[in-house]
Amino acid sequence: MGKLLSTGLALLLCMAAPTAKGGDPVYPAKDIPDSLKKDAHLVRRIDETTIRIIDETEARVIFHYVTTVLDEAGAEDTEVMLFYNKLQDIRSISGALFDAEGRLVKRLKQSDIQDVSGAGGGTLMTDTRIKHHQFNYSVYPYTVEYTVEMRYNSLFFLPSWTPQAGSDCTVELGKLTITAPATYALRYQSYRYNGQPVVTTEKENKIYTWEVKQLPAMKKESYATEFYRRTPSILLCPSDFTMGGFKGNLNTWKDFGKFAWQLNEGRDVLPDAIKSKVATLTQGLSREEKIKALYRYLQQNYRYIDITLGIGGWQTFDAASVAANGYGDCKALTNFMMSMLKEAGIRSNWALVKAGDDEHSFEADFPSPQFNHVILCVPGEKDTTWLECTSNTLPAGYLGNFTDNRPVLLVDAENSKLAHTPVYGISSNEQIRHITATIDSSGNIDINASTFYTGLQQDHLHDRLHSLSREKQLELLRKGLDFGSYDINDYQCKENGTTLPSIEEHIQIKANNYATVTGKRMFVVPNIMTRSGRKLEEEGPRVSELQFEFPYRDIDSASIILPAGYKPESLPQPVTITGKFGHYSASVSLKGNTLTYIRKIEHKDGIFPAADYPELVKFYGAILRSDRSRLVLVKE
């Protein structure tokens, strides 16, 4: 359910600023305090958003941005991208470019603005278009100013406000002003903002004002939470609103779900031919078998394609159109699957979800349009089955890291509520690898590796197998191998179609000079294929909490036959590390000329306090050293 209107942008837009008149300079770069230049690539001199809510059907928004670009790295973030459609239109755009002294270099001409379709790969139909522009200037520093006025034909998508565009952007002045009828219940949620908005009354309106000044650059932090939670941000959401002729309210999740239900009510009527097909496919099957049979039919006969027209970002095409066309977007395919289950006597619910591999954050106490996708929830007496209806390859009941372990809104006529998608624990996300290898006297190695991936650890490989050619798969495999000169002599994968999916991978590799031979000595790293590359730098005071999306377990065992005539001079000592982030162990033993290496790591998921970062640095550093430790052999 792609976003209908991202006011999103790299640099959104703008308002009406004191543009240079008669050659008078404005925004000279020398006026920027040194504190705002430190660690910055661009400085937001002014970030002003002014919103006027007319009524529950309309809002006018003016964006005004003045940004000084300090260097080439900052220039990458100055492109304006504006999405517009029937629910959000652009009234005007103006802009100007100034040199370092603040002298006017160029004004924006309307002919300079590119206007293109919002259709991307996989999009069949959309009424969304994009206007975008960037001043191409390379004499640093320079300043750009944009002013954009927009009309929102629904309050459903009120823009959020985050004046700091990124960690390398500082802010001189940021201001959000909202004017609304005094009787309108404005809803908002703030992050990293000290205090409350200033609220004043003017005639029949209330005016809300937020303001920030002198925001410094932020360090880029590993494993950080979403950026809007680390910098002053205001999320906005309506109470009463109208969209596409439908009235709604977002005060509670129940209200939200009721609105979504109304948008899509009556769109589940199947053609007679599909009803007959459902009866044939499910005859004599158990409830669970019916779900799997109908899901398999959906996957084999219908395909996903993006469609966003009118209020199509939230309203589905009916089941009959999917049956006739053989395709649909996430809403349409989910609705079609729900309709087939209903015909088979099985109840199910739409589940609105914020999808994405790293999109686990969710504001559960702030009902608002945080969703970008829909899946199907099929509740049962004991277990719930979740279906990703846009996938032609996933097994029934498995979601993967695109929608796992996060809140969803189950849509119902009168009882919509939040639920949670499956959590795949550490025992579900395994990588178990066994290697047999032989090293010759020149240090070359022959490797036979068998790896068993389960759950979220197999997702990346599953995607490769179903979307890439064998040549491209091998190319990506090579990028992940830490050898110098080598050949892949065999590569095979086999998928096991269980509810918790797994993949068996078999690789044969011949690598030259794997072991280092120096005189009588041979140096061998017993960890052949699963070496940690994570070396974290010590940081000063950390702002963000640490976030790890899912837990996993890796187990490696390697049997390495060493060349005859060598004896160990030193063996790496066994390593065991246990802490709040997980557990790691590694050991090496030698019997005859066979070296045995055992490695195991269990990594926890979750959100950890920022103060725990030094312990993480220590944990990863110890693993890095252990994974690269060497066995020293001496020739007899």
From TrEMBL:
Pfam families the UniProt entry points to: DUF3857, Transglut_core
Superkingdom of the source species: Bacteria
Keywords: Signal
Protein name per UniProt: Transglutaminase-like superfamily protein
Signal peptide positions on this chain: 1-22
UniProt domain Transglutaminase-like: residue ranges: 285-354
UniProt cross-references to InterPro entries, sorted A to Z: DUF3857 (IPR024618), Papain-like_cys_pep_sf (IPR038765), Transglutaminase-like (IPR002931)
Domain DUF3857: 62-218
